[in-house]
């Protein structure tokens, strides 16, 4: 992620409508996005996420401020300049937008045909190579109606990346998928983008995929909000959630989820088995529902990430013997979930036990 920003935004403003009906959508947005960076854009519905994504994708004109893509100013840019930028960007949508009358390889090849510098005779081999990369080599001659939702999204990824774009924009790519399929799609997107050195920007409401990001940008009422502010809001939601349960359990739940996250992230490699082990440990000990556990786990991981350089020690408070045993056993279960207990994970478990005054783990 070295080099000059591929996207540079400064004091960007955007409106819909005019006169008395004019509505402020984006206000004073400023950020730089670097080559190869994976950025997730979060925020409630109506906060301006999709508008910002379409501006960065040169799908609409910027109105005020500065928006530079590959060093080219798009505020006030003409149609030819916008088109030149778009040819270097790949797009993945929530709706797959595949053409039902075309085969899978033909849908992927459509992106190649839009690039005058790629020979048309290369379209099919390039499409089939990309389909192999997303695990759909055997589906090249099928039609979209014969595919599952996850397979259709994989075709969308192949179509977006087949022309080797410099930027990949994804708008809610997992919204129509179940948890397992959505995770597979995002991991595949990250793998291929890394291999091709593509900058990736993902708009999502899906807290389960936040860990793929190098950086998270949060929009609230059209303004860019700090990650710490967004986490603080989620923390408030968590405290409200915990208040519905036994107050005596609240400290155990918050401390437990934070400790699990510290162990899972101790070696800087988080795999799905570790995430699932965290969920199962919380479900078996907390009394929370599965949806509440998902929120607690994602929040704890986010808190650990933003405080990784200045880890806050866990607060000592008496735990029962059973809670202590559950606590330490769960930490080891998460660390061993991928079949490899690393030295970093073992040291982190011992640090946590020491902070909480447990016997040596």
Q: Mean of residue pLDDT? A: 83
Structural class: alpha/beta
Q: How are the strands ordered across the major sheet?
A: 6-7-8-3-9-10
User: How many structural domains are formed by the residues?
Assistant: 3
CATH architecture of the largest domain: 3-Layer(aba) Sandwich
Q: Going by CATH, what is the homologous superfamily of the largest domain?
A: P-loop containing nucleotide triphosphate hydrolases
Principal-axes shape call = globular
Order of helices and strands: EEEHEEHEHHHEHEEEHHHHHH
Please mark out the parts with pLDDT under 50 across 5 or more consecutive residues, or reply none.
Answer: none
First CA to last CA: what distance? 39 Å
* CATH topology tier name of the largest domain: Rossmann fold
Task: Tell me about the largest β-sheet.
Answer: 6 strands, mixed
Q: Tell me, what is the CATH class of the largest domain?
A: Alpha Beta
Q: Considering DSSP H and I runs of 4 or more, what fraction of the residues is helical?
A: 40-55%
Radius of gyration: 23 Å
């Amino acid at each position: 992620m070295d080099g000059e920003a591929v996207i540079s935004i400064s004091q960007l403003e955007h409106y819909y409508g005019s006169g008395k009906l004019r509505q402020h959508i984006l206000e004073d947005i400023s950020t730089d996005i670097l080559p190869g960076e994976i950025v997730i854009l979060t925020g409630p519905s109506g906060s301006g996420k999709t508008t910002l994504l379409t501006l960065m994708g040169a799908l609409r004109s910027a109105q005020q401020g500065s928006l530079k893509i590959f060093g080219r100013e798009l505020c006030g840019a003409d149609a030819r300049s916008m088109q030149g930028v778009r040819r270097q960007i790949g797009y993945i949508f929530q709706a797959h937008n595949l053409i039902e009358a075309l085969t899978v390889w033909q849908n992927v090849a459509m992106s190649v045909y839009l690039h005058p510098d790629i020979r048309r005779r290369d379209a099919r081999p390039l499409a089939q190579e990309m389909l192999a990369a997303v695990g759909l080599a055997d589906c090249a001659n099928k039609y979209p109606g014969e595919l599952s939702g996850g397979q259709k999204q994989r075709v969308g990824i192949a179509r977006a990346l087949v022309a080797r774009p410099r930027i990949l924009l994804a708008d809610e790519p997992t919204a129509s998928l179940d948890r397992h399929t959505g995770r597979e799609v995002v991991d595949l997107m990250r793998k291929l983008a890394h291999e091709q050195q593509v900058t990736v920007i993902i708009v999502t409401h899906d807290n389960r995929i936040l860990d793929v990001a190098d950086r998270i940008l949060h929009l609230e009422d059209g303004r860019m909000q700090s990650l710490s502010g967004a986490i603080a809001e989620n923390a408030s939601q968590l405290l409200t959630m915990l208040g519905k349960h036994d107050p005596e359990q609240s400290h155990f739940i918050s401390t437990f989820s934070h400790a699990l996250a510290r162990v899972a992230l101790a070696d800087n490699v988080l795999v799905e088995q570790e995430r699932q082990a965290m969920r199962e440990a919380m479900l078996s000990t907390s009394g929370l529902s599965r949806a509440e556990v998902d929120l607690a786990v994602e929040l704890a991981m986010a808190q650990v990430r933003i405080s990784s350089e200045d880890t806050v020690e866990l607060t000592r408070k008496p735990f029962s013997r059973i809670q202590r045993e559950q606590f330490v056993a769960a930490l080891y279960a998460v660390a061993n979930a991928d079949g490899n207990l690393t030295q970093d994970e073992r040291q982190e478990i011992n640090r946590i036990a020491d902070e909480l005054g447990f016997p040596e783990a």
